[in-house]
Each structure stands twice: as C-alpha cells, then as structure tokens.
Amino acid sequence: MDFNEVLFKRRSIRKYQDQQVEEEKKMKLLKAAMAAPSAGNQQPWHFIVVEDDSRKEDIREIHPYSDMLAEAPLAILVCGDKREERHKGFWVQDCSAAVQNMLLMAENLGLGAVWLGVYPREERAEKFQELFSLPKEVIPLAVVAVGHPAEESGKVDRFKEGRIHQESWQN
Ligand SMILES: Cc1cc2nc3c(=O)[nH]c(=O)nc-3n(C[C@H](O)[C@H](O)[C@H](O)COP(=O)(O)O)c2cc1C
C-alpha cells in the first residue's frame, strides 16, 4: 500500500470479522514492532501474543475500555523490560514507537487495530503483571487489538497550523 494511504488512513478499528489473523501477518506485525527506533538501540520490548478467548476475557475484566476484545481474534501485549534499559526512563518512548509501527503495519496489511493504554495506570499495570506472570521489572505498556476490519477507517485531517512554532514558542 502507498505510504501516504497507510499513514493517513490508519484509524482505530474496534469491530472485526470472524476470521483469524494469518500467521504470516502476525509475524509481520511483530517484525514491524521490533524495527522501531529505541534509545541507544536498547530494544527493551517484549510481546505477549494472546489468541485464547478466555485470556482475552481476562483482559476485558481488568481493562475498562477493551470490549472490542470480545470480537478481536488477536491481542498483543507490549511490555517494556527495565532490565534492558541502558538509558533510564526511555522504555516508554521505545515501546510506544513499537506500538505505532504495529498499527501502521496492520493498516498496510488490510487489518484493523486499536491501541489500548495500560501504563501509566498503576492499578491496571499491576493487574496485567499478575495476569501474565510478568517479572516485576517488566511493565505492560499497551495492548494492541487486531483483526480483519468490519468497519470503515475514514480519513481525518488533524493538521493544525497553530500547533507549529518557529524557533520559539512565541512565533
Ligand atoms: C495511549 C493511548 C491509549 C489508548 N487507549 C485506548 C483504549 O483503552 N481503548 C480504546 O478503545 N482506544 C484507545 N486508544 C485509541 C484512541 O481512542 C484513538 O487513537 C483516538 O481516539 C484517535 O482515533 P484514531 O486512532 O482512529 O485516529 C488509545 C490511544 C492511545 C494513543
């Protein structure tokens, strides 16, 4: 797909067809995630692939805005491993870049996806740590719900000239 189409047509998709995400597409999502930039190339990410319905149901019980997981065939939990950090505190930006790469690859593959925030909601993150038996240094940042889209992803224009400042805030 044309890069401009991918970038500007990507929207959050929360309705999915009753169809599994193909193994090959799943791997492309994970490869895209791990191609992301990271501070000092520290790559602190880990990905937990969730396809089991009862596991998705467990997530719905602890994440208040994740009802789409009742339909989504695939959920990928993106975690940052603080033990991999040489540049303290940057794991959030590293893992966010990985999430965005995954969303763009999903659009490119004709899939629909949505980012579900976990960290920095402490209580939510703790529940995910418990549910997925994560080591205490491994922090869940987000869940990406993925499936074959059953709703349209319309283009939107969010460009705001006023958000651009030349050389300093005043200009
Ligand atoms: C950090 C973050 C957390 C989000 N958490 C949720 C969520 O919990 N549930 C949800 O349905 N959408 C969530 N979203 C998706 C946003 O609602 C969505 O990106 C925003 O409304 C813009 O719409 P668009 O993605 O279609 O362009 C999240 C997005 C980000 C970046």
Give the SSE map.
Layout: H1 3-9, H2 23-34, E1 45-50, H3 53-62, E2 74-81, H4 91-108, E3 112-117, H5 122-131, E4 138-147
Antiparallel strand pairs: 1-2, 2-4, 3-4
The structure holds flavin mononucleotide.
Flavin mononucleotide (FMN) binds next to strand 3.
Give an overview in words.
This protein has 171 residues and is of the alpha+beta class. It has a single domain, classed as NADH Oxidase (3-Layer(aba) Sandwich). It contains 5 helices and 4 strands; from the N terminus they run H-H-E-H-E-H-E-H-E. Strands 1-2-4-3 form a 4-stranded antiparallel beta sheet, sandwiched between helices. Helix 1 packs across helix 4 and helix 2 runs antiparallel to helix 4. It is globular. The protein starts with a helix and ends in a 24-residue tail after the last strand. The model has no long low-confidence stretch (mean pLDDT 97). The chain binds flavin mononucleotide.
Q: Quickly give the structural class.
A: alpha+beta
SSE order in H/E notation? HHEHEHEHE
How many runs of DSSP E, i.e. beta strands?
4
The biggest beta sheet, please?
A: 4 strands, antiparallel
Q: What best-fitting shape do the alpha-carbon axes yield?
A: globular
**What kind of assembly state do the chains in view correspond to?**
single chain
CATH class: Alpha Beta
Give the number of domains: 1
Radius of gyration: 17 Å
Compute the separation of the termini in Å: 37 Å
Q: What's the tally of helices? A: 5
CATH topology: NADH Oxidase
Bound molecules: flavin mononucleotide
CATH architecture: 3-Layer(aba) Sandwich
| CATH-level-4 superfamily name | NADH Oxidase
**Proportion of beta-strand residues:** 15-25%
- Fraction of residues in helix: 25-40%
Unreliable spans: none
Strand arrangement in the largest pleated sheet: 1-2-4-3
User: What is the residue-mean pLDDT, rounded to a whole number?
Assistant: 97
